[in-house]
Design goal:
The protein has 409 residues and is of the alpha/beta class. The chain is 40% helix and 22% strand. The chain contains 16 helices and 17 strands. The strands form four sheets. A nine-stranded mixed beta sheet has the order 9-10-8-7-6-5-4-1-11, with helices on both faces. The chain has a three-stranded antiparallel beta sheet with strand order 12-13-14. Helix 1 packs across helix 10 and helix 6 packs parallel to helix 8. The N terminus is likely disordered.
């Protein structure tokens, strides 16, 4: 995505775009960015700060709720229903449970909700307690995503994680005891020195816990992070390209062999317990972003897309809201070509792909008609399948996702 220079005066949408009706009755997913962390992990480039005093958290909460009200007024809360809520960060588990409860209570007074919305909270083992787990479960949070990242103490230290593998297992067991029956574990492979044998051992330990969901991502080296500096100095070295690829293949094969279905390139679930929040976004659904640096997307009646991007860093975000200025910048994308590219970029990550009719609806043209030469090549190579209903990559095609997207977009 190109860099956007934020202009506070451009925060409100033009008059003719206010209170738009969605072109399709796609449920609205809400992402809440809670920007506090105990420590900054070595690989992390997300907008987060060290946890502050209770007074500062109250200041942030007041601004956050004001942000929620601004967004509701801008897009017309009576025309949308929230289908899922994702409390991410940062580390949502680091703030008091009563703050999480206030956020959910405020949200449900402003918005209409689906009967059984998926409500996910991201939590780290070092800041999760049995009392917090009980409180979260009681307030209606029904999906927990634990930031485990590794099941090996050496790798956890390497990544800058403030917990141990033993703490991760204890937290998982405590979550089960609190009544959570939908738990995801976030894991990362491909860190410096990572081997196939050690990763196989870690995955086995994670599977033994029997979570409903496993998100297994390849380590990304982000600009400006401590990890990047260590790699540039020669202090650390990433696995070579062949090892990195084999770590990815091992993840896919081992998890599928043991009953975790890969429904997205890096996400696996048992008994179809997919992350409904992410599915909605991958399927070109609309979403709302609350909090510093959060992104949103609303589809308008004419098919154009209105995007919101919140300001950051945190002090800028707080200052805008405290002076009653909208914290977001609106960017209108009316180009069907851009929307069609995003549809492929997001939807082809899914093993089910995207509905052929959805692409036609967004792009205004059938993919085969639009990209016949590229489609014929990918189909001929066994990377892509197109039938009357869907456009999807084969298992082999998912392994070469970037190459397939480069040809199609």
């Amino acid at each position: 995505m190109p860099t956007i220079k934020f202009q506070p005066q451009a925060a409100s949408p033009p008059t003719h775009l206010q209170h738009p009706e969605p072109i399709r009755k796609i449920p609205l997913a809400l992402y809440a960015h809670i920007p506090f962390c105990k420590v900054k992990c070595h690989y992390c480039a997300f907008d987060s700060v060290a946890v502050h005093s209770d007074t500062f958290i109250q200041r942030w909460l007041h601004a956050f709720l004001h942000d929620l009200q601004f967004q509701a007024q801008n897009i017309g809360q009576n025309r949308h229903r929230i289908s899922s809520i994702f409390l991410g960060g940062g580390t949502p588990s680091i703030i008091p449970a009563k703050i999480i409860e206030q956020i959910l209570e405020h949200l449900t007074t402003i918005w209409s909700m689906d009967d059984h919305p998926e409500i996910t909270l991201e939590a780290n083992p070092d800041s999760t307690t049995p009392a917090k787990l009980d409180a979260w479960h009681s307030m209606g949070i029904n999906r927990l995503s634990l930031g485990v990242q590794a099941m090996d103490d050496h790798r956890l230290a390497l990544l800058g994680r403030p917990h141990t593998a033993h703490q991760a297992r204890q937290t998982f067991e405590a979550a089960r005891n609190a009544g959570f029956d939908n738990i995801n574990l976030d894991l990362i492979h491909g860190s410096p020195g990572h081997t196939l044998d050690s990763w196989r051992h870690e995955l086995t330990r994670a599977m033994m816990l029997q979570p409903e969901h496993l998100s297994c991502y390849s380590l990304m080296v982000e600009s400006g992070t401590p990890l990047e500096r260590l790699l540039n100095s020669g202090t650390m070295q990433l696995p070579d390209e062949e090892t990195a690829a084999n770590l990815f293949f091992l993840t896919r094969d081992l998890l599928e062999d043991q009953g975790w279905e890969r429904y997205e390139i890096s996400n696996h679930a048992r008994n179809r317990r997919y992350c409904q929040h992410n599915l909605g976004i991958w399927r070109s659904g609309d979403y709302l972003g609350i909090g510093p640096s959060a992104h949103g997307k609303i589809t308008l009646e004419d098919g154009s897309v209105l995007r919101s991007i919140n300001h950051w860093p945190l002090e800028t975000y707080l200052d805008l809201l405290e002076h009653n200025h909208p914290p977001h910048c609106w960017v209108e994308h009316a180009s069907p070509k851009e929307a069609a590219a995003e549809c492929l970029l997001m939807g082809l990550r899914l093993t089910d792909g995207i509905p052929r009719a959805l692409y036609h609806d967004i792009a205004g043209i059938d993919l085969v008609d639009h990209k016949k030469k590229e489609v014929d090549f990918l189909v001929g190579e066994g990377l892509l399948v197109i039938d009357s209903c869907s456009i999807r990559l084969t298992s082999r095609g998912l392994d070469f996702l970037d190459e397939c997207l480069t040809r199609l977009i």
